[in-house]
Amino acid sequence: xxxxxxSLFKKDCQMMIAGKFFLVAxxxxxxxxxxxxxxxxxxxxxxxxxxxxxxxxxxQQEVSELIYPVASLEELNAVLSSDAxxxxxxxSSGTPDIVFYYGSEKTDNHRADYASSLLHQESGYTAWIVGxxxxxxxxxxxxxxxxxxxxxxxxxxLGIASVLFKEKQMGAIRVHAVLPFKKGLFIMAKLxxxxxxxxxxxxxxxxLNIGVSDAAVxxxxxxVQTAILSLxxxxxxxxxxxxxKDFRQFSLAYVVIVIFASAPVFxxxxxxxxxxxxxxxxxYHVYMGLKNACFGMPVTNPVYYICSICGIAILFxxxxxxxxxxxxxxx
Amino acid sequence: MKGLYYQLKSVxxxxxxxxxxxxxxxxxxxxxxxxxxxxxxxxxFHFGVLESDLSAQTIVWLERYGSVTIYKTQEELTDAxxxxxxxxxxxxxxxxxxxxxxxxxxxxxxxxxxxxxxALYEGRESAGQISVTVLERPDMMAGLQNIFISITxxxxxxxxxxxxxxxxxxxxxxxxDLVNQILPMTQSGYVIQxxxxxxxxxxLSAVLTACCYFRIPVKNVLLMLVLxxxxxxxxxxxxxxxxxxxxSLMVGVVYIKIIMIIFMAVPLVxxxxxxxxxxxxxxxxxxxSASFEGIMKLANSxxxxxxxxxxxxxxxxxxxxxxxxxxxxxxxxxS
Lengths: 331, 335
Known about the structure:
The complex is a heterodimer. Chain A is mainly alpha-helical. Chain A is 69% helix and 6% strand. Chain A is elongated, with a radius of gyration of 28 Å. The mean pLDDT of chain A is 81. By secondary structure, chain B is of the alpha/beta class. Helix content of chain B is 70%, strand content 9%. Chain B contains 15 helices and 5 strands. A 4-stranded mixed beta sheet of chain B has the order 2-1-3-4, sandwiched between helices. The longest helix of chain B has 28 residues, at 307-334. Chain B is elongated. The interface between A and B is large, with 65 and 69 residues.
């Protein structure tokens, strides 16, 4: 049995090398790493609003260093229209008057109060820090978990389909019906190839983007979550391939799954937009598991693991039935 | 004309093609109905406080700036502050004043807000006395929604590309391509039919999507139509290119994915980063940049100046069409 498994495994690896799957995965790894290291962590930041002061009579003596003085009312209007988030203070009449473009009701309250507080010397207070991450390490972990999720959902899913459709069209699946080994092995071999490649991808992705020392701590948890996601996606890809007629139909199913599975998840998980029904979305939990693992807070709730294992088992049974049906078809 | 009839018939039989055309329309409808997703909370401040720690007045004061969530224990509050997806600022009482807690990984905007919050609290009495003039400007969130709409429209406009490429590749795989070679049909006739089918599909898909949720003044509808027609024509042409260069459906799908990503990412990134100078000129080499810019201008102003965008799209139409013809000619000579 072990020998059979090894030969199937070897064949799948060869097919994936021939289909340039590893090349695509390696290429995307390089692109993701370049994006995180040279793009995302450098350009994602936002400063608090700039405050501009026009004070022709010099009535404001104790202004903070954070205020930018301007020389005329025209200049004040010009900077405000180019920096629409900025706040202007017009003190030319002797009493300060705050001017800004409408943002939203609550932020406007804050902008007005913040600007007027800068007319006095600041207190030099700094907020207490209760977390362990810095902005950069957080951004690295966040992007790393997101890209890992996308890679497994999009590329892994497509990968298994591209390999399987080839075998299906060539009739190789039907040939397996007469080969002397257990039929489950065929599925197992495929899953193992994708699981291993996803795990290696996850290791490289974490080490290259989060750093060796930080990655070593979180890696076990990340690998567990990657394995869950990878098995689910590989089984779904397998199932879709068995049930759909050709790659064309698959590509539509692919678009639907990728868009509808990932878009709401990203919206809820990365912004403060919380949709009430998102708890019913299975991928939301897997994604949060992966993300929390990247942040060193692995899921400890046993219900999550029980549900994942049950889900994988159910998918496996469906796939097995579909596979048997496909083998039984007559050419 | 008869050829065109057969092309349309084959498209009608292919339910998958019809579904792919309807996809952007479905997304548009869904966005229209789900409209309830309230994006305004993204730009707001979020404060976390402990139960029975701050006075009711302080909480009311905090609610002027953003939403306030109350937590029972210090651990829950700390977890909520550290939660990576939100930028929550913790607020605790400190005698007469307040102190703030942050996780240390937030954007500078939120850290500075937390640093200055106690000073604002101390000055809360005098803050109301200063006069405030709020100038009107278009809603920030409407701008964000326009981006969503524009991108969906771009996808719809360029659906003709996906469709044409798929159609040609599957003809190649089924051998229809070889049959075509012995039929009394000229290469140019074939190309025109294909462009027409993709073009009509892309136009219809974009017009339906636009009708679903793009609200523009009646006088701009004509400009919008011009943008859609030009973009759909370019998309159909690019579909022909993909069909020509990919041997199998799998390779075709990869090409389509790459082109779709470029078409969506280039205008979006250049818009968000407000690229200027040489980079913005380079972006115009991707046809969707001009379409995106045109749609954004149509959505944002009453008197949009989109002649430049229309001119760029026209240039794309002519250049790609001539390029396709010359490549076809060259291939014919060398085959």
